[in-house]
Amino acid sequence: MIEDDEEINVQPNAETEEQTGLRNGFCKFVMAPICWIKMLSDEMHWSFVYGVLVINGVSQGLGGALGRLGKDYYLKDVQKVQPSEAQIYSGVIYIPWIVKPIWGILTDVVPILGFRRRPYLIFSGLLGVISMLLLSLHEMLHLVLAIMALLAGNISVAFADATVDACIAENSITHPFLAPDLQSLCELSLSSGELIGFLISGILVHQIGPQGVFGLLTVPAVLVVSVGIFLDEPHKPDFAYHQVFQNFLDACKALWTTLKCPDIWRPCLYMYLSLAVSVDIYDGMFYWLTDAAGGPSFSQETVGLISSIGSVGAILGALLYQNVLKNHPFRGLFFWSQLLFGLSGMMDLVLVLRINLKFGIPDYLFAVIDRGVSNLVDKLKWLPLLVLSSRICPPGIEGTFFALLMSIQNFGVISSSWGGGLLLHAMGITRTQFHNLWLAILIRNILRVTPLCLLFLVPRGDPDTPAPANDVLDSEEAALVLDDDNVELVSLLAPN
């Protein structure tokens, strides 16, 4: 009898310990990111961490997601342009990301009033505020001025991104043990911002319209200005401005010497062609999903929700690559990712031909699956390109050359967008005519697998194979870049 009483008394204590353990585990789960960010702030400076969170998470992530859907509906419903024209304009708006190395070099070698970062951040934020206010307050802005305003908004984001990337590179050099943490901070803040942005973008476009969304985008721009005001940066008033031109010449000479190496230009050519040939017809699909008489006729909220759920596919793709595929040879990865890229595009064909309805799969569910699979495959295709880019960078100009490689890839993305616009125009696809959309999708999917014929341009090795460009620059040329006066050129990094 006494033993039974003891068992009864012990049971509540066991339950209490289990509940306490769960509560402590939940608290650790919630507090771990906060403690991590606090650790980074203590090791470096709170203003730097604040700048990374604002520019990567709020400006690029949240603002980029809101701006993407706002831009789509603005061109379609306010400017009333054709799908092919919208595709071309999207490429034009993306041009600032091609010349991102120029923004980075400017912040590195041309200080203003003794500061290399703060004035450029303030300028970027003010440019974003002005461009977004112009789009939001003018009821019917001329198309040319609207494209220029959207272009200025992208310059604002790209310039700020190049500036904070340089700050990240500097802190990675001074705090090498925290370099992985800084990259994780960038990726997590960017992914979280995009997820939240896509989740609320459709609701906001429906409630306040695309121009109202542009008005809201002044908030991230104002936060970028605040980063420029609070950023902790040493003041160096005595700068030899007469050396700026020589610094540019030294950087160009080192880049040209590197690009002449076959082990360098061949992968660069593959990177560009693999992206450019895979034409993008996103705007044609977007118009069909929202406006076509026999299409799904998705609302703004639905489009935003599909994008937010689809972004989970990109996260899964990154996890799959990190945990399973990162050590595989480049050629094998590019072969399968490019093949899957073409096959995944067939899901758009199934949706447009309404085959999914014959199998009882609703449009919304199939569109979510389509977007998720496409984002996953796209991430599997993109990440090996980033790894290959970092692998072929020669020592001494790693940052500058990596930024150049990202510009080459961004130019491939723009070429893909322009090629898609020409394809939509050739197929006669307009705001009301979608009869040949299935054929455009089929042509796009065939073009997506053509880069398989170019795999001979890719090195046979894997990420652990010694880099082919270690001896591209001789010691004298490398010293030009690594000299104390030119060391800033190394600190250019490109976005994800």
TrEMBL record:
**Which InterPro entries is this protein grouped with?**
BT1, FBT, MFS_trans_sf
CDD domains reported in the protein's UniProt record: MFS_FBT
Q: Is Signal tagged as a keyword?
A: no
Q: Which UniProt keywords apply?
A: Membrane, Transmembrane, Transmembrane helix, Transport
Transmembrane as a keyword of this entry, yes or no, is yes
- Which residue windows are transmembrane per the record? 48-66, 86-106, 118-137, 143-164, 212-231, 269-290, 302-321, 333-355, 401-424, 436-458
- Locations listed in the record: Membrane
**One Pfam assignment:** BT1
Q: Where is the signal peptide?
A: none
Question: Where the protein is mainly located, per its record?
Answer: membrane
Q: Which GO terms describe its cellular component?
A: membrane
Taxonomic superkingdom:
Eukaryota
Where along the sequence do coiled-coil regions lie? Answer: none
List the membrane topology term(s): Multi-pass membrane protein
- Record NCBIfam families: fbt
The Swiss-Prot or TrEMBL record describes its family as follows:
Belongs to the major facilitator superfamily. Folate-biopterin transporter (TC 2.A.71) family.
Q: What name does the UniProt record give this protein?
A: Biopterin transporter family
Origin species: Dillenia turbinata
Q: Lineage of the native species?
A: Eukaryota, Viridiplantae, Streptophyta, Embryophyta, Tracheophyta
